[in-house]
Design a protein that fits this description.
The structure holds two protein chains of two kinds.
Chain A (H helix, E strand, L loop, with lengths): L1 H32 L39 E9 L4 H20 L1 E2 L18 E2 L5 E6 L38 E7 L2 H14 L4 E10 L30 H7 L14 E10 L1 H5 L3 H8 L34 H5 L12 E2 L2 E7 L5 E11 L6 H8 L8 E11 L17
Antiparallel strand pairs in A: 1-5, 1-6, 2-3, 4-5, 7-10, 7-11, 8-10, 9-10
Helix pairs in contact in A: 1-2, 2-3
Chain B lengths: L21 H8 L7 H4 L2 H7 L21 H6 L24 H30 L3 H16 L8 H11 L17 H8 L9 H17 L7 H20 L10 H23 L5 H22 L12 H18 L2 H4 L21
Classes of the chains: A alpha+beta, B mainly alpha.
Chain lengths: 420, 363
């Protein structure tokens, strides 16, 4: 099985690189040296003046899809590795990065002989517009078991996500050897990427679960106001400033104590949090606001008028204004002692129809980044285990993943350090 | 598993009876008669309250809302609200906390009675285990489980919370899951009874359950229940039943989710019965709720009839039965959600403002 599969995905990769290699490589170099929003060089890759032309660079120090603002659409796609050996896994990861890089740059779809299946599914037309696509590749703890001799490379804190007291985890939507986070401005770009990437690694990496997400539109009143989650509250207000590089080193990028290959990566926490929205919609507004700690309309902390206002817990030690068990207060107490616990959240809303019992299946794809889950995410989650909001949410899946540094060059791939 | 109750509710907008603008009815119904049995059985509730779709009649809209600009929309769907003041409707004066004394006492007595029934079923379960009769043991378990869920509103603080975990705890949050030694109550028995486990191996769990139930029955008469919590439970029991029972989440081995939902309806009706004397003086909540609960009980009876007289497992429900049950429960919950607001015991306090001179902006 393995030799055949390996040949097939390597051959497909070669066809794509061979047929359009020159254009893509040129495009890649140009895009990666220009500003992230610069137009692709591939002719006709996007309608002029359209945001379809936006490029997020695939290579660099850190992977894209973490610090850049979340675009409108996402899919989380978990894989298990069925690669028979270490070389096959390495080849699959190389092919995954290569194809992801091509798609993030965009460009014309290569032409093969007309009697061959097309090299690209073609669902975006003859030119793939980049559309701010990011493909963020992370590894689960299970990849570091005995199968591929990677145990010594396991990032210091990477484990399976534990089951927290509030969890009702569905094994069919939890964990995985890999997690690929695909984000773009338009849904069809994400779907195309899912289709191309699964095809690229077929035989070696088998999809395990997937969840589609979307971001609330920027509805103001100002462009910096945070979008809303499906409880209607603004989400992400207290995120650390992603443009502050030293703060990101302090909170997000893993460093000391990690194996050399992992430095500059980050721990990704994924929680699929079902929200019982019918129930929520039957709760009085005052109670909703007290559970969150914010005013629903403006997003301001209770007693305030501006979303980004400091809630001043120091002036409200008894919780007369913002209850002591309000979500924002437990999640981020804003004290000197808790400053280093902060995490970077970059979640998406989800809607996947309704369940067998007829209830809407909506919620939050909570995605967060931190340099040390044990000192950050877990500490926060444990404070939240008994918050009143737990009645209205059920975490049903997700996992812990380690997102390594990006491919350094167009010849490099995400995870190359595992095989060094 | 009964979850910890949410915080007591602060004052809500006073619940207004839902009303419907004729135009919207015509649009929703397509101008014709509802043809499904689901729609037809709603008439009991409608007879009391009238049709109940669309925004509350007293809803007001903020002046100058940018998207409420179309006259057609405003008049046809939302009613003639242009120029309405942006303040919410007036609230009824609060109910005195003392008015809850009798209802809460009645509820405690009811709970003790249910636990006595449960104790009998647990004894029957033990006998069935000793007789190695799995069918009889399963029957006794279902009865005991329903009796427990008939409590609906165990107040999960302190020792009562620990007992609830022991009696009705799920393996989900325990280290080791189903293998945890702390997984020992109703659901541990459920798992064994609906598998090939030798019945004799379950006897110790039944003994422990029996002792825990007796202990809870001794504690209940001393449990203090906050009036706001009690009013909140009027709708949260059924909300929990939908989330935990009808979903199949809480009783995965026996599939007893419909039974559990039905038990939640019984518990809700018991709470509403105790509250009726207060509720009858407040707005028009009580007739709606009673009609909806009656409709819901009819739906459950019809389902039992269609399954040989006994409530089926969640997976045995036909699509139409699931839809019928969902529709009835959803409608009942929309009405029950008005109860806490109608029974507020305090007026909403204004939220203190963050002092202006200290109001720093984060960025």
């Amino acid at each position: 099985m393995s030799s055949v599969s390996r040949r097939s995905f390597l051959a497909r990769g070669a066809a794509l690189t061979g047929a359009a290699g020159a254009a893509l490589a040129t495009g890649a170099r140009a895009a990666e040296t220009s500003a992230p929003t610069g137009p692709p060089t591939a002719p006709g890759a996007a309608v002029e003046g359209s945001d379809l032309a936006t490029v997020q660079p695939f290579t660099g120090a850190h992977q894209a899809g973490i610090l850049n603002p979340a675009p409108a659409n996402a899919t989380l796609l978990a894989f298990d590795s069925l690669a028979a050996d270490r070389d096959t896994l390495k080849a699959a990861l190389q092919a995954l990065s290569d194809r992801a890089r091509q798609l993030t740059v965009g460009g014309p779809v290569p032409l093969l002989e007309v009697d061959a299946p097309p090299a690209d599914s073609g669902i975006l037309g003859p030119d793939n517009a980049p559309d701010a696509l990011t493909v963020t590749i992370g590894f689960g703890a299970s990849l570091f078991d005995g199968r591929y001799g990677l145990a010594a490379k396991r990032p210091a804190e990477l484990t399976d996500m534990p089951t927290f007291p509030v969890d009702h985890l569905d094994p069919k939507r939890s964990h995985g050897d890999l997690l690929v986070q695909i984000c773009a401005q338009h849904r069809d770009t994400v779907v195309h990427t899912v289709r191309e990437l699964t095809r690229t690694v077929r035989g070696a990496l088998q999809q395990r679960w997937s969840m589609d997400g979307f971001a609330g539109a920027g509805r103001g009143p100002s462009p910096k106001n945070s979008p809303r989650n499906l409880f209607a509250f603004r989400d992400g207000t207290a995120n650390p400033d992603t443009t502050d590089a030293s703060l990101m080193n302090q909170l997000v990028w893993a460093g000391a104590g990690e194996p050399a290959w992992a430095v500059g990566g980050t721990y990704q926490v994924v929680r699929i949090i079902r929200m019982h929205v019918e129930f929520w919609d039957r709760v009085g507004l005052t109670e909703q606001q007290n559970m969150i700690g914010r005013v629903r309309d403006s997003g301001a902390p209770l007693g305030g008028t501006d979303e980004f206002q400091d809630p001043r817990y120091d002036l409200d030690p008894d919780g007369k204004r913002i209850p002591l068990d309000a979500h924002i207060r437990l999640a981020n107490p804003r004290t000197a002692a808790t400053a280093n616990e902060r995490i970077l959240r970059r979640g998406f809303n989800y809607h996947r129809g309704f369940d067998d019992a007829g209830q809407l299946d909506q919620g939050l794809l909570f995605v967060a980044y931190n340099r040390s889950p044990s000192k950050q995410f877990v500490v926060i989650q444990n404070r939240l285990n008994s918050e009143p909001m737990t009645d209205y949410v059920t975490p049903v899946g997700g996992g812990y993943f380690f997102v390594p540094p990006a491919a350094r060059t167009a010849a490099d791939f995400v995870g190359s350090g595992l095989f060094a | 598993m009964l979850r910890k109750n949410a915080r007591p509710r602060a004052l809500l907008f006073s619940g207004a009876a839902l009303a419907l603008v004729a135009v919207l009815v015509a649009v929703l119904a397509g101008g014709g008669e509802p043809s499904s049995s689901t729609a037809a059985t709603r008439t009991a509730a409608q007879a009391v309250t009238g049709p109940r779709f669309g925004p509350p009649a007293l809803a007001r809209y903020r002046e100058g809302s940018p998207h409420v600009t179309s006259q057609l929309n405003t008049y046809a769907v939302q009613g003639a609200v242009q120029g309405a003041p942006s303040t919410p409707p007036d609230e009824l004066p609060p109910v005195s906390a003392a008015a809850f004394r009798t209802p809460v006492a009645a509820y405690r007595a009811y709970s003790v009675g249910r636990l006595r029934l449960m104790a009998r079923q647990v004894a029957a379960l033990s006998s069935a285990l000793a007789a190695d009769d799995r069918a009889a043991a399963q029957t006794a378990w279902r009865a005991a489980y329903a009796d427990y869920l008939n409590l609906g509103a165990v107040y999960l603080e302190g020792p009562v919370a620990a007992l609830n975990d022991a009696i009705d705890g799920l393996p989900g949050g325990l280290a080791g899951g189903v293998a945890s030694p702390r997984f020992s109550g109703l659901h541990r028995l459920e798992r064994g009874l609906w598998s090939e486990a030798p019945l004799a191996s379950l006897a110790p769990f039944a003994r422990k359950l029996s002792a825990d139930v007796a202990r809870l029955a001794r504690l209940i008469p001393h449990v203090q229940i906050d009036p706001a919590d009690y009013a909140t439970r009027a709708h949260e029991i059924l909300e929990d039943a939908v989330r935990d029972q009808l979903s199949g989440a809480d009783a995965p081995w026996s599939g007893a989710g419909v039974l559990g939902t039905s038990a939640g309806v019984v518990a809700t009706a018991a709470v509403i019965r105790t509250l009726a004397p207060i509720l009858s003086t407040r707005e028009s909540v009580l007739p709606t709720v009673n009609a909806d609960l009656s409709d819901l009980r009819s739906a459950l009876r019809a389902i039992a009839r269609a399954h040989g007289g006994e409530l089926p497992t969640t997976s045995e429900l036909t699509r139409l039965q699931t839809e019928r049950l969902d529709a009835s429960i959803g409608q009942a919950l929309e009405g029950l959600a008005q109860v806490p607001g109608a029974l507020e015991t305090t007026r909403a306090l204004a939220i203190p403002q963050i002092p202006a001179k200290d109001a720093r902006t984060a960025r």
